[in-house]
Amino acid sequence: MTAHEIDYKIHGEEMQFVEIELDPQEGVVAEAGSFMMMDHGIKMETIFGDGSTQNKGFLGSILGAGKRILTGESLFMTAFYNSLSEKRNVSFASPYPGKIIPIDLTDFRGKFICQKDAFLCAAKGVSVGIEFSKKLGRGLFGGEGFIMQKLEGDGMAFVHAGGTMAKKELKAGEVLKVDTGCIIGFTQDIDYDIEFIGGIKNTIFGGEGLFFARLQGPGTVYIQSLPFSRLADRVLASAPKGGGKDKGEGSILGGLGDLLDGDNRF
Q1: Would you say 20 and 6 are in contact if contact means Cβ atoms under 8 Å apart?
Q2: Chain centroid to CA 52
Protein backbone atom coordinates (compact mmCIF):
# COMPACT_ATOMS: atom_id res chain seq x y z
CA MET A 1 0.00 0.00 0.00
CA THR A 2 1.18 3.53 -0.75
CA ALA A 3 -1.06 5.01 1.99
CA HIS A 4 -0.51 4.27 5.66
CA GLU A 5 -2.80 1.56 7.04
CA ILE A 6 -4.61 3.11 9.99
CA ASP A 7 -7.16 1.86 12.53
CA TYR A 8 -9.98 4.08 13.74
CA LYS A 9 -13.06 4.39 15.94
CA ILE A 10 -15.91 6.89 15.51
CA HIS A 11 -17.40 8.27 18.75
CA GLY A 12 -20.69 10.05 19.42
CA GLU A 13 -24.04 10.35 17.71
CA GLU A 14 -24.81 13.93 16.63
CA MET A 15 -21.47 15.69 17.19
CA GLN A 16 -19.06 12.94 16.24
CA PHE A 17 -15.30 12.68 16.28
CA VAL A 18 -13.01 10.05 14.79
CA GLU A 19 -10.17 8.63 16.88
CA ILE A 20 -7.32 7.29 14.74
CA GLU A 21 -4.79 4.81 16.09
CA LEU A 22 -1.33 5.26 14.62
CA ASP A 23 1.36 2.60 14.71
CA PRO A 24 4.98 3.80 14.98
CA GLN A 25 5.86 6.13 12.07
CA GLU A 26 2.30 6.08 10.71
CA GLY A 27 0.65 9.38 9.84
CA VAL A 28 -2.62 11.06 8.98
CA VAL A 29 -3.40 14.34 7.18
CA ALA A 30 -6.30 16.63 8.06
CA GLU A 31 -7.91 19.92 7.16
CA ALA A 32 -6.76 22.84 9.27
CA GLY A 33 -9.15 23.36 12.18
CA SER A 34 -10.43 19.78 12.44
CA PHE A 35 -7.92 18.68 15.13
CA MET A 36 -9.45 17.75 18.51
CA MET A 37 -6.82 16.00 20.69
CA MET A 38 -3.75 13.77 20.53
CA ASP A 39 -1.60 11.59 22.77
CA HIS A 40 1.93 12.47 23.84
CA GLY A 41 4.37 11.40 21.14
CA ILE A 42 2.31 12.61 18.16
CA LYS A 43 4.30 15.05 16.04
CA MET A 44 2.35 17.75 14.16
CA GLU A 45 3.64 19.26 10.93
CA THR A 46 2.11 21.85 8.56
CA ILE A 47 2.60 20.85 4.93
CA PHE A 48 1.85 22.18 1.44
CA GLY A 49 -0.98 20.27 -0.24
CA ASP A 50 -1.67 16.74 0.99
CA GLY A 51 1.86 15.37 1.15
CA SER A 52 0.99 12.36 -1.03
CA THR A 53 3.35 10.72 -3.52
CA GLN A 54 1.38 12.36 -6.35
CA ASN A 55 2.51 15.74 -5.02
CA LYS A 56 6.08 14.73 -4.19
CA GLY A 57 8.93 17.24 -4.42
CA PHE A 58 8.87 21.04 -4.34
CA LEU A 59 7.04 21.52 -7.65
CA GLY A 60 4.55 18.78 -6.79
CA SER A 61 3.87 20.41 -3.42
CA ILE A 62 3.23 23.78 -5.10
CA LEU A 63 0.84 22.19 -7.60
CA GLY A 64 -0.95 20.32 -4.83
CA ALA A 65 -1.35 23.50 -2.82
CA GLY A 66 -2.60 25.32 -5.94
CA LYS A 67 -5.31 22.73 -6.42
CA ARG A 68 -6.51 23.39 -2.88
CA ILE A 69 -6.88 27.10 -3.66
CA LEU A 70 -9.25 26.21 -6.51
CA THR A 71 -11.47 24.27 -4.09
CA GLY A 72 -11.57 27.20 -1.68
CA GLU A 73 -9.42 25.48 0.95
CA SER A 74 -6.26 26.65 2.70
CA LEU A 75 -2.85 26.30 1.04
CA PHE A 76 -1.78 24.11 3.93
CA MET A 77 -2.82 20.85 5.52
CA THR A 78 -1.69 19.41 8.84
CA ALA A 79 0.06 16.05 9.14
CA PHE A 80 0.23 14.09 12.39
CA TYR A 81 2.89 11.37 12.87
CA ASN A 82 3.48 8.85 15.62
CA SER A 83 7.12 9.47 16.59
CA LEU A 84 7.26 6.83 19.34
CA SER A 85 7.76 3.06 19.26
CA GLU A 86 4.25 2.28 20.58
CA LYS A 87 0.74 3.04 19.35
CA ARG A 88 -0.67 6.54 19.82
CA ASN A 89 -4.08 8.13 19.09
CA VAL A 90 -5.10 11.39 17.46
CA SER A 91 -8.70 12.62 17.09
CA PHE A 92 -10.54 14.91 14.67
CA ALA A 93 -13.99 16.44 15.23
CA SER A 94 -16.98 17.22 13.04
CA PRO A 95 -17.34 20.93 12.23
CA TYR A 96 -21.13 20.88 12.83
CA PRO A 97 -23.86 18.32 13.74
CA GLY A 98 -23.87 15.31 11.46
CA LYS A 99 -22.08 12.06 10.72
CA ILE A 100 -18.48 11.12 9.92
CA ILE A 101 -18.31 8.62 7.06
CA PRO A 102 -15.31 6.30 6.67
CA ILE A 103 -14.33 5.76 3.03
CA ASP A 104 -12.07 2.82 2.22
CA LEU A 105 -10.74 3.83 -1.18
CA THR A 106 -9.83 0.23 -2.05
CA ASP A 107 -13.59 -0.50 -2.09
CA PHE A 108 -14.11 2.17 -4.76
CA ARG A 109 -11.22 1.31 -7.10
CA GLY A 110 -9.03 4.01 -5.62
CA LYS A 111 -11.18 7.10 -6.22
CA PHE A 112 -14.07 8.91 -4.51
CA ILE A 113 -15.56 12.29 -5.51
CA CYS A 114 -16.99 14.58 -2.83
CA GLN A 115 -18.09 18.13 -2.10
CA LYS A 116 -15.38 20.71 -1.62
CA ASP A 117 -15.94 21.05 2.14
CA ALA A 118 -16.77 17.41 2.95
CA PHE A 119 -13.22 16.11 3.49
CA LEU A 120 -12.14 15.78 7.14
CA CYS A 121 -8.96 13.68 7.28
CA ALA A 122 -7.21 10.71 5.63
CA ALA A 123 -4.33 8.30 6.00
CA LYS A 124 -0.98 9.75 4.97
CA GLY A 125 -0.49 8.95 1.27
CA VAL A 126 -4.09 9.58 0.16
CA SER A 127 -4.19 12.26 -2.53
CA VAL A 128 -6.69 15.12 -2.07
CA GLY A 129 -7.13 16.67 -5.51
CA ILE A 130 -9.74 18.35 -7.68
CA GLU A 131 -12.33 16.97 -10.07
CA PHE A 132 -13.33 19.26 -12.96
CA SER A 133 -16.79 18.99 -14.47
CA LYS A 134 -16.80 18.55 -18.23
CA LYS A 135 -20.45 19.55 -18.48
CA LEU A 136 -21.30 23.24 -18.84
CA GLY A 137 -24.73 22.93 -17.22
CA ARG A 138 -23.38 21.20 -14.16
CA GLY A 139 -20.63 23.80 -13.81
CA LEU A 140 -22.96 26.78 -14.06
CA PHE A 141 -25.95 25.50 -12.10
CA GLY A 142 -24.80 22.44 -10.15
CA GLY A 143 -24.25 24.23 -6.87
CA GLU A 144 -20.66 22.99 -6.63
CA GLY A 145 -19.38 24.76 -9.75
CA PHE A 146 -16.95 23.07 -12.10
CA ILE A 147 -14.81 21.79 -9.26
CA MET A 148 -15.32 19.06 -6.69
CA GLN A 149 -12.74 17.26 -4.57
CA LYS A 150 -11.44 13.81 -5.43
CA LEU A 151 -9.80 11.44 -2.98
CA GLU A 152 -7.41 8.96 -4.58
CA GLY A 153 -5.25 6.15 -3.27
CA ASP A 154 -5.53 2.89 -1.37
CA GLY A 155 -6.06 4.11 2.20
CA MET A 156 -8.82 5.30 4.51
CA ALA A 157 -10.39 8.74 4.20
CA PHE A 158 -13.09 10.38 6.30
CA VAL A 159 -15.76 12.81 5.07
CA HIS A 160 -18.40 14.69 7.00
CA ALA A 161 -22.15 14.82 6.35
CA GLY A 162 -24.54 17.37 7.84
CA GLY A 163 -27.56 15.95 9.68
CA THR A 164 -28.36 12.34 8.78
CA MET A 165 -26.57 10.40 6.05
CA ALA A 166 -28.28 8.25 3.42
CA LYS A 167 -26.34 5.78 1.30
CA LYS A 168 -27.86 4.82 -2.06
CA GLU A 169 -26.67 1.97 -4.26
CA LEU A 170 -27.75 2.73 -7.83
CA LYS A 171 -28.02 0.02 -10.46
CA ALA A 172 -26.99 0.57 -14.07
CA GLY A 173 -29.31 3.19 -15.58
CA GLU A 174 -31.06 3.92 -12.26
CA VAL A 175 -31.55 7.66 -11.65
CA LEU A 176 -31.70 9.57 -8.37
CA LYS A 177 -32.66 13.27 -8.22
CA VAL A 178 -31.20 15.23 -5.32
CA ASP A 179 -31.02 18.81 -4.09
CA THR A 180 -27.60 20.01 -5.26
CA GLY A 181 -26.48 20.95 -1.75
CA CYS A 182 -27.41 17.56 -0.29
CA ILE A 183 -24.73 15.59 -2.13
CA ILE A 184 -21.82 14.42 0.02
CA GLY A 185 -20.05 12.38 -2.62
CA PHE A 186 -20.24 9.49 -5.06
CA THR A 187 -18.15 6.85 -6.78
CA GLN A 188 -16.35 7.49 -10.04
CA ASP A 189 -18.83 5.55 -12.24
CA ILE A 190 -21.78 7.77 -11.30
CA ASP A 191 -22.93 10.07 -14.12
CA TYR A 192 -23.56 13.44 -12.47
CA ASP A 193 -25.51 16.20 -14.22
CA ILE A 194 -28.16 18.82 -13.43
CA GLU A 195 -31.81 18.88 -14.51
CA PHE A 196 -34.21 21.81 -14.74
CA ILE A 197 -37.15 21.42 -12.35
CA GLY A 198 -39.65 22.70 -14.90
CA GLY A 199 -43.08 24.27 -14.51
CA ILE A 200 -43.72 27.99 -13.93
CA LYS A 201 -45.22 27.48 -10.45
CA ASN A 202 -42.40 25.19 -9.39
CA THR A 203 -39.80 27.62 -10.70
CA ILE A 204 -41.25 30.81 -9.19
CA PHE A 205 -42.97 29.61 -6.03
CA GLY A 206 -41.47 26.19 -5.28
CA GLY A 207 -38.66 27.45 -3.07
CA GLU A 208 -36.42 24.54 -4.07
CA GLY A 209 -34.25 26.33 -6.59
CA LEU A 210 -34.26 25.87 -10.35
CA PHE A 211 -32.31 22.63 -10.70
CA PHE A 212 -31.97 19.12 -9.33
CA ALA A 213 -28.77 17.14 -9.29
CA ARG A 214 -29.30 14.08 -11.49
CA LEU A 215 -27.24 11.04 -10.50
CA GLN A 216 -27.30 7.96 -12.71
CA GLY A 217 -25.86 4.56 -11.80
CA PRO A 218 -24.18 2.24 -11.54
CA GLY A 219 -22.45 3.31 -8.34
CA THR A 220 -22.81 4.50 -4.76
CA VAL A 221 -24.09 7.91 -3.69
CA TYR A 222 -23.93 9.50 -0.21
CA ILE A 223 -26.59 12.09 0.65
CA GLN A 224 -26.81 14.48 3.63
CA SER A 225 -30.06 15.78 5.13
CA LEU A 226 -28.66 19.11 6.37
CA PRO A 227 -26.14 20.91 4.12
CA PHE A 228 -24.18 23.56 6.01
CA SER A 229 -25.39 26.25 3.59
CA ARG A 230 -29.01 25.45 4.51
CA LEU A 231 -28.17 25.54 8.23
CA ALA A 232 -26.37 28.87 7.84
CA ASP A 233 -29.30 30.37 5.92
CA ARG A 234 -31.72 29.43 8.72
CA VAL A 235 -29.42 30.88 11.39
CA LEU A 236 -29.01 34.15 9.49
CA ALA A 237 -32.75 34.40 8.85
CA SER A 238 -33.45 34.00 12.58
CA ALA A 239 -30.69 36.31 13.78
CA PRO A 240 -31.83 39.52 15.54
CA LYS A 241 -31.71 42.58 13.34
CA GLY A 242 -29.57 45.53 14.36
CA GLY A 243 -26.93 43.46 16.16
CA GLY A 244 -28.79 43.08 19.48
CA LYS A 245 -31.10 40.59 21.14
CA ASP A 246 -34.61 40.75 19.73
CA LYS A 247 -36.80 40.93 22.87
CA GLY A 248 -39.94 40.92 20.74
CA GLU A 249 -39.21 37.54 19.17
CA GLY A 250 -42.27 35.31 19.20
CA SER A 251 -44.61 38.06 20.46
CA ILE A 252 -47.45 39.81 18.71
CA LEU A 253 -45.65 43.13 19.00
CA GLY A 254 -42.48 41.76 17.40
CA GLY A 255 -39.91 44.50 16.86
CA LEU A 256 -42.33 47.13 18.21
CA GLY A 257 -41.57 45.79 21.70
CA ASP A 258 -38.09 47.27 21.51
CA LEU A 259 -39.56 50.71 20.89
CA LEU A 260 -41.89 50.42 23.89
CA ASP A 261 -39.18 49.35 26.34
CA GLY A 262 -36.87 52.13 25.19
CA ASP A 263 -34.09 49.77 24.16
CA ASN A 264 -33.77 51.04 20.58
CA ARG A 265 -30.91 53.40 19.85
CA PHE A 266 -30.94 55.84 16.98
Answers
A1: yes
A2: 20
CATH fold of 7-236 reads Double-stranded beta-helix (3.60.160)
The strand pair at 119-123 and 156-162 is best described as antiparallel
Task: Return per-residue pLDDT of the chain as tens, 266 residues.
Answer: 577 889 999 999 888 999 999 999 999 999 888 999 999 999 999 887 676 765 555 555 556 555 556 555 666 789 999 999 999 999 999 888 899 999 999 999 999 999 878 899 999 989 888 876 655 455 454 444 457 888 999 999 999 999 999 999 999 999 999 888 889 999 999 998 887 765 555 455 444 556 778 899 999 999 999 887 777 777 787 777 655 555 555 444 455 455 444 554 44
What's the rounded Cα separation, in Å, for the pair 73 and 139? 19
Chain centre distance of CA 181: 11
Q: Are 154 and 103 in contact (CB under 8 A)?
A: no
Q: If we measure between CA atoms, which residue out of 143, 137, 43 comes closest to residue 83?
A: 43
Position 165, amino acid: M
Distances (CA, A) of 161 to 39, 227, 259: 27, 8, 42
Write down the domain spans for the chain: 7-236
H-helix or E-strand spanning residue 214:
strand 211-216
Contact present, 145 and 220 (Cβ < 8 Å): no
Element (H, E) at 38: strand 35-38
CB 27 within 8 A of CB 82: yes
d(CA 9, CA 102): 10
